[in-house]
């Protein structure tokens, strides 16, 4: 009897242990699959939330994009616009575009304009955002609102404003520099090929930098103060904290601003129209100005302008992909 009782107890223990082991394995499988399920749920939610905006963008952009592609493959000038018949041209517009020296000149000017303006915007905006975010620096709400005033100025109005400032005869810049004794004679800022593009860059950066300040300041407000306190306890300097804490945490928003500002700078048009109109000569011709001139001024080659627009869009897509891959790397906390 005693041996039989012991056997039953051992059998019960073995069965109980097997059951516990199976439940443990089941919990392990559930725990393993839980992150996968959460990721799949997050992916489905992202698709659900982005579908309405994607549909709206498709409805708004599909026809213009497709019609521009159609025009780029046809001969469309003032004569065809009057008749309504567009002969098929194949790749002739693109061949003519790539063979036009003015197009390549405008691309070089665009690259210089974009690179210099975006670099200046990011550096100045980040510096001002850090100053505004500093607790020891007092800036009232009115002062912070004044930082956004240039961003609220319409681009054409901004261009006209700076065209008066840079005017060679009665511009405020020449008057101020001459009064201070920094120049001996008035400088023709907009008529000198070496200075004209730089003048437009100054006007453009003045208008667009506050947008970056706003984004960077908002991102800085979201960084927990505990990180900086821990770094201070470890003896880190301000520069070390900025390099190892602030800059990595700002990397996503910097990527967004780089893509946005590069796109807008690449398409700059209003300041060029209001300040220099491409002059002197072709020294401030940029890609958007070239597209406008060939499309809407004699001989009104709309097909060539559409081809130019498609090439510019392709370049912007490549730049955006490069930004995302370089800037949006994994951040280790």
Overview of this protein structure:
With 333 residues, the chain is an all-alpha fold. It has two domains: 1-72; 92-327, Orthogonal Bundle (MetI-like fold). 76% of the residues lie in helices and 0% in strands. The protein is built from 14 helices and no strands. α4 (101-133) packs antiparallel against α11 (238-266), α11 packs antiparallel against α14 (302-327) and α13 runs antiparallel to α14 (302-327). The longest helix is centred in the first third of the chain and has 71 residues, at 2-72. It is flat, with a radius of gyration of 30 Å. Mean pLDDT is 83; it is low at 1-14.
Summarize the helices and strands and which ones pair or pack.
Elements: H1 2-72, H2 78-83, H3 92-98, H4 101-133, H5 141-147, H6 149-152, H7 155-165, H8 172-179, H9 196-221, H10 225-233, H11 238-266, H12 270-276, H13 287-296, H14 302-327
Helix pairs in contact: 1-14, 3-14, 4-9, 4-11, 7-9, 7-12, 9-11, 9-12, 11-14, 13-14
């Amino acid at each position: 009897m005693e041996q039989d009782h012991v056997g039953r107890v051992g059998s019960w223990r073995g069965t109980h242990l097997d059951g516990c082991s199976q439940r443990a394995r089941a919990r392990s499988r559930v725990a393993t699959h839980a992150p996968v399920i959460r990721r799949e749920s997050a992916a489905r939610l992202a698709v659900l939330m982005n579908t309405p905006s994607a549909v709206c963008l498709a409805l708004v952009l599909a026809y213009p994009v497709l019609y521009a592609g159609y025009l780029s493959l046809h001969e469309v000038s003032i004569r065809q616009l009057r008749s309504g018949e567009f002969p098929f041209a194949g790749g002739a517009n693109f061949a003519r575009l790539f063979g036009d020296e003015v197009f390549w000149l405008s691309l070089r000017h665009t690259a210089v304009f974009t690179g210099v303006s975006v670099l200046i915007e990011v550096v100045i905006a980040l510096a001002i955002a850090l100053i505004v975010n500093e607790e020891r620096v007092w800036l009232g709400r009115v002062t912070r609102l004044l930082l956004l005033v240039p961003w609220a100025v319409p681009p054409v109005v901004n261009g006209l404003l700076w065209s008066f400032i840079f005017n060679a005869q009665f511009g405020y810049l020449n008057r101020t520099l001459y009064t201070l004794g920094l120049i001996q004679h008035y400088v023709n800022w907009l008529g000198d090929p070496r200075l004209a593009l730089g003048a437009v860059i100054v006007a453009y950066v003045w208008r667009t930098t506050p947008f970056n300040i706003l984004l960077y300041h908002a991102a800085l407000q979201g960084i927990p103060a505990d990180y900086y306190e821990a770094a201070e306890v470890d003896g880190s300097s301000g520069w070390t904290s900025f390099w190892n804490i602030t800059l990595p945490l700002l990397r996503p928003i910097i990527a967004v601003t780089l893509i946005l500002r590069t796109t807008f700078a690449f398409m700059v048009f209003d300041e060029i129209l209001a300040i220099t109109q491409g002059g002197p000569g072709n020294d401030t011709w940029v890609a958007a100005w070239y597209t406008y001139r060939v499309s809407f001024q004699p001989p009104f080659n709309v097909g060539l302008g559409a081809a130019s627009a498609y090439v510019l869009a392709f370049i912007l897509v490549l730049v955006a992909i490069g930004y995302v891959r370089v800037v949006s790397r994994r951040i280790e906390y």
